[in-house]
Amino acid sequence: MVVLANPPVVDQIPLLRSPDPGDYFSGVPTVDLSSPGAARAIVNACERFGFFKALNHGVPAATMDRAESEAVRFFAQAQEDKDRAGPANPFGYGSKRIGLNGDMGWLEYLLLTVDSASLSDACAVPSTAAFRGVLNEYIAAVRKVAVRVLEAMAEGLGIAPADALSAMVTGEGSDQVFRVNHYPPCPALEGLGFSATGFGEHTDPQLISLLRSNGTSGLQIALGDGGQWVSVPSDRDAFFVNVGDSLQVLTNGRFRSVKHRVVTNSLKSRVSFIYFGGPPLAQRIAPLPQLLGEGEQSLYKEFTWGEYKKAAYKSRLGDNRLAQFEK
Ligand code: GA4
Question: How far apart are CA 250 and CA 166, in angstroms?
């Protein structure tokens, strides 16, 4: 028997059944952000799935395309050059290791912090002016989409003021994170019926996440309580919007934080950009009084975003992080 001192890292990555055509979900709720019915449609989708696809979002295709090609160029560098920028702890360049507690996925990524509307000065990578510039352009634009969506949610939920939710993610001290993921193909598994896990199942801890990817599918969401996994058909012209744990709590469970994961394609690489909108660390996360009916109690213990974030970084990806805060 040959014992490898360092087993190939693919061995440490859990496999998933490769999606077949029947797994593609034709029922992804789609919202035209420019339509008058957007607020209602968003609320319906967030109650039912915690997930929807947003069209007519106003982010120029040219910005998204340029950000994508700069990301491709960044990830095409020699491994040793990228490693000089890492490892992610958890911010910076990361490869295969996700978070701090041993989760692994078939991907490499940049995890970056955002101050106001652009990358924090503390983010040393991306270092080229072209990549940094276009990411800042993208971040400024996607943030506006987040504001629009959160305002529409407040409207649809009947909450005043209009910026009750959006101010939490864009106001002074808000905790915004930006992530660029690259899932290289995993040809070793071609034809075997299994695929490498790109990013294992989890819910996002923040209020809201907006994802844009290239034309390679891979994102899957769990439907309802039974948790049947379905594949989301890719659409490079759309943003996919996720409800995060904090928004589930702010709505006392009315919106659901959607469980999702990414399955690697055996032949095509996937590149995605995700903006995560979180509140300031001191923000109290509790159901908004306007959403509690007569005599309705909060389902959750009181906590701040800072406390939740700390707990999240002690957890494994697939853990149910909200469970310890349930009453
Ligand atoms: C999931 C959502 C965001 O990508 C992220 C992730 C973070 C990380 O990759 O560092 C976490 C994960 C995410 C949830 C649980 C913890 C923290 C990895 C992990 C195991 C940046 C975030 O905020 O939470």
Answer: 13
Whose CA is closest to 142, among 212, 247, 230? Answer: 212
Q: Whose CA is nearest to atom 14 of ligand 1?
A: 317
In this structure, are residues 279 and 174 in contact, taking their beta carbons and an 8 Å threshold? yes
pLDDT of 4 higher than 50? no
CA of 125 relative to ligand 1 center, distance in Å: 19
d(CA 230, CA 243): 17
Atom index in ligand 1 nearest the CA of residue 94 equals 9
CB 262 within 8 A of CB 105: yes
Whole-model pTM: value is: 0.96
- Could you tell me if 269 and 184 are in contact, meaning their C-beta atoms sit under 8 angstroms apart? yes
Where do the domains of the chain lie, and which CATH numbers do they carry? 15-325 (2.60.120.330)
Q: How many CB atoms lie within 10 A of CB 262?
A: 27
Residue 5 has pLDDT above 60, yes or no: no
Q: How far is residue 168 CA from its own chain's centroid? A: 17
**Do the beta carbons of residue 176 and residue 113 sit within 8 Å?**
yes
pLDDT digits (tens, 9 = 90+) for 236-247: 999 999 999 999
Phi, psi of 190 (to 5 degrees): -50, 130
**Alpha helices (H) along the chain:** 38-48, 61-75, 79-84, 129-157, 166-170, 245-250, 305-312
Q: Which of 88, 130, 123, 124 is nearest to 107 (CA)?
A: 88
What does the pLDDT look like over 131-173, one tens digit per residue? 999 999 999 999 999 999 999 999 999 999 999 999 999 999 9
Question: Is the CB of residue 96 less than 8 Å from the CB of residue 107?
Answer: yes
53 C-alpha vs ligand 1 centroid, how far in Å? 22
